[in-house]
Amino acid sequence: MKIAMIGAGAMGSLFGALLAEAGETVTLLDICTDHVNAVNANGLVIEKQNQRRTVRLPATTDPQHIGPVDLAVVFVKSAHTAAAAQTAADLAGSSGLVLTLQNGMGNTEVLAESVDPSRIIAGTTANGATFLEPGTIRHAGSGETVIGAWTSTETARAATLADTFNRAGIVTRVVDDVRAVLWAKLFINIGINAITALTGIKNGQLLDQPETRQLSREAVEEAIAVARAKGIAIDGDPVEKVFQIAAATGPNRSSMGQDVDHRRLTEISAINGFIVRMAETAGVPTPVNRTLSALVETLQGHY
Q1: Whole-angstrom Cα distance, residue 40 to residue 23?
Q2: For residue 295, what pLDDT band results from cuts at 50, 70 and 90?
Q3: Strand partners, 74
Q4: Helix or strand (DSSP H, E) at 183
Q5: Element (H, E) at 119
Q6: Catalytic annotation present for 48
Q7: Residue 153: its pLDDT value, please?
Q8: More confident residue, 154 or 42
Q9: In what order do the strands lie in the sheet containing 25-29?
Q10: What is the mean pLDDT of residues 92-105?
């Protein structure tokens, strides 16, 4: 399978490398020339459990150097989804698939403005990765990837894609209702990302103090109320799931925390900000998420 990774940060580079190691034809596409040059010169270095390996695969800043692909995987930040959508549409052509595993909500709808919705696969991943320096990433943790067809017409192709990922060691399963999965991931991001970004703590430290746990709980409970108002199916106890994920990824900094650390634009608008916007149409109060969103927006606005 010929694959383009649109957005070769930590996660895009990780997935691209794993697929390349499994024999797929993969090209990394990114605007960061330092990273692209380092990968082309020395390969992509992956650090995992204090060991390093190097994966050789091409990288470029120009999508025209890639040509038509069978699969375009979108891993850019949500603020850049619109630009990535046009690139994905060009690369996938009239028959290729477009997969989004991005954080936050609304990315798939943006992609669907440029790509036939029947060729879009959406999902989430519990894999963790950190960008260390140009050409080097850390595989911080492994977890399940869950995908599903955005429309009901492409379930078979979603299953084929899952088989490709599983052969590459990316544990993947297909679900019928991918929207519920996206909301479940949103709850986790709501409960962890903004709080860790604002305080400088690691994921596991969110559980250290009752005040922080309560803040996380209230943010997630607001999001649950919005989801229920929108008719979204909710599985289990999302708050306890957030606490379990925080414990399981204890040493990690959240993706939003890493963005703040490196003074990068965050995805707050597609996470807590998304809940605030949805709440306005549903008539649900969200004071905690409104405050968290405003604080992160203020922080990144004064880098």
Answers
A1: 18
A2: very high
A3: 6, 100
A4: helix 178-199
A5: none
A6: no
A7: 66
A8: 42
A9: 59-60, 25-29, 2-6, 71-74, 97-100, 120-125, 145-149, 172-174
A10: 95
The 8-class DSSP code of residue 70 comes to S
Residue 220 burial (C-beta neighbours within 10 Å; 0-12, 13-18, 19+): buried
**Identity of the residue numbered 61:** T
- What pLDDT shows up at residue 261? 95
Q: What is the domain-level CATH number for residue 74?
A: 3.40.50.720
- pLDDT of 154 over the 80 cut: no
Rounded-to-integer distance, Cα 233 and Cα 248, Å: 25
Selection from 289, 111, 287, 257 nearest residue 186 by Cα = 289
- The DSSP 8-state label assigned to residue 78 in this structure reads G
**What are the tens digits of pLDDT across the range 224-269?**
999 999 999 898 999 999 999 999 889 888 989 999 999 999 999 9
CB 89 within 8 A of CB 113: no
Annotated active-site residue in 77, 185, 230, 241 = 185
3-state secondary structure of 147: strand
For residues 24 and 130, membership in a common domain is answered with yes
d(C-alpha 111, C-alpha 278), whole Å: 19
Domain endpoint, select from 117, 151, 176: 176
Rg value, the chain, Cα: 18
**Domains held by the chain: number:** 2
Residue showing tokens 């891993």:
75
- Say what the pLDDT of residue 82 is: 95
- 172 and 68 in a common domain: yes
Query: What is the model's pTM?
Result: 0.89
Give the angle subtended at the CA of 193 by the CAs of 191 and 199, to the nearest 5°: 105
- Mark whether 131 and 145 lie in a shared domain: yes
